[in-house]
Amino acid sequence: MNRTTDLVIIGGGPAGLAAAVAARKAGVQDILILERDRELGGILNQCIHNGFGLHTFKEELTGPEYAGRFIAQVQEAEIPYLLNTMVVDISATAGGKTKIVTAMNKEDGLMNIEARAVILAMGCRERPRGALNIPGYRPAGIYSAGTAQRFVNMEGRMPGREVVILGSGDIGLIMARRMTLEGAKVKVVAELMPYSGGLKRNIVQCLDDFGIPLKLSTTVIDIKGKERVESVTLAKVGPDRKPIPGTEEEIPCDTLLLSCGLIPENELSGMAGVTLSPVTSGPVVNESFETNIEGVFACGNVLHVHDLVDYVSEEATAAGGRAAAYLKGELEGEGSQEVTIKGEGGVRYTVPSTLHVDRMTDKQVVRFRVGNVYQNCDLAVYFNDTCIQKLHKKVMAPGEMEQVILLKNKLQETENLTNITIRVEQPTA
Amino acid sequence: METRELTCIGCPLGCALTVTMNGEDITVTGNTCPRGAEYAKKEVTDPRRIVTSTVRVTGGSLPAVSVKTKSDIPKGKIEDCILALKNVSLTAPVHMGDVVLSNVADTGVDVIATKNIL
Predict the structure, then answer these.
(1) Closest chain A residue to B9 measured between Cα atoms?
(2) Which of A66, A130, A265, A286 has the most Cβ atoms closer than 10 angstroms to its Cβ?
(3) Which candidate, A392, A356, A367, A359, places its Cα nearest to that of A377?
């Protein structure tokens, strides 16, 4: 089966939904969302805890409720979507301008969809055991925290009774509470780093409230049990993150949950020839969230892993609007002055990483993460070699996304602007 | 006199707060801003939480539906709330906002569905 459309959005999670709604509002009639799950909403459907939407809706929603708001908008706008549909390839047509998105599902079989523009909104995946190099046996009972979350919250099944969690990212913390409420004993949360990657609120409300210990600078060095997990061995790590001999502690348990980071899922982007950032593992994009391939845009966790879904929606709304502008021929001006944005001295990356001054909107949000915990520091913004802005920050941590806003008129005033640098600096006395 | 150690949740700084309670008199130290003191006072006098969980559903696309307390309930009632929800079983369709259990654990607060299970 073959069909054509103006805009294909790959992924029906928070990013894809917000991008679709924004593109429709900007006048794109012919949109198709492709979602591989049996319903729209993405990972929000299994995030049944509250705390979503404080920025967007000014109220605290659960994940399914937050998704529900956007699903309702998509349905009201009658934007078409296909469920249970897996995209397997993206390629350019011979002429180069349009893209062929190859997808399949049970009803339509294999289909080629010719699209004038594509928005990548595939989200991210959890780092699995294989990527963590944890020694030991490979019995049943080892899950990523998100897998356990889906079992408990959607499938109504408990993965185990006595649990050790490795990694103190927010999903791990949330699952510590969830498993406890469902009657499991969470014995400990171990974190390799000397600080938690999770929000303070989650440490307090998911661990402290239930007396679950958090062991920092600690990792799993062995897993025992042939059929089912019988115990894991923890050890303290030094500043080099290597286990310290003599600090081993064996904890009997039947389940090990891994909450050790998220990786943008970009296999498709790679096939399409999209350039990926080695820092974020997501596409390198310009001010319009456009990748190196004309007409291919990216937003949400496939671009860089976000801390709050509100920012995903915001970013995807912008991306949807820019894709609409592209389709209307309003994103011309490729020849205009291109400025490179880069992070230095603690700023690990920036999204976007380039911008065309003529094409940018009046305000450009630049989002990034820092590589360490910084207290009482300045976020300095340089236009070429001149510092134009310093923002004092009481605290910045790798677990939270930071942003600076660039104003178009300021950029236009700067002569021969070629690069913008964002840097963490010690305040000058 | 009683003292308690808390971690402030107001921002990523996560100040270590010490709360000293002398009858009605509550003093907070360790906070770097007024929000810390406010949080600590509320936390030692009337800590409340919104509770989220799931309830069994039969005849739907999934065997469970996510639920939440419509507003926050006293922290001490969390366990009773969860136990009460264990005895609830629904039949599909369930709609977002449907009351799943009213006045859960005598808190005066209803538990509502947060998802459609059709």
Answers:
(1) A201
(2) A66
(3) A392
Q: What is the pTM of this model?
A: 0.94
d(CA A31, CA A34): 10
Report domain extents, chain B. Answer: 2-45, 52-113
Q: Measured between alpha carbons, how far is residue A301 from residues A120, A291, A318, A321, B13 in Å?
A: 10, 15, 14, 18, 25
Cis check: omega of the bond before B93, within 30 degrees of 0: yes
| Closest chain B residue by Cα to residue A200 | B9
Supply A9's token pair: 């959005």
Nearest to A124 by CA among A282, A298, A270: A282
- Interface with B, mutate which of A150, A157, A177, A201 (most B CBs under 10 A): A201
Partnered with residue B10 across adjacent β-strands are none
Neighbours of A221 (CB within 10 A): 17
Closest listed residue to residue A325, CA positions, set A121, A122, A120, A117: A117
Dihedral of CA A195/A200/A202/A207: which sign? positive
Residues of chain B contacting residue A45, judged by C-beta atoms under 8 Å apart = 115
In CATH, B52-113 is 3.10.530.10 = yes
Tell me, what's the ipTM?
0.89
CA dihedral in degrees (A44, A47, A52, A53; nearest 10)?
20
Residues A363-414: tens digit of each pLDDT? 999 999 999 989 899 999 999 999 999 999 988 888 889 999 999 999 989 9
A40: closest CA of chain B, how far (Å):
12
Structure tokens, A149: 């979350």
- Interface touch B9/A64, C-beta < 8 Å: no
What is the Cα–Cα distance from A308 to A192, expressed in whole angstroms? Answer: 23
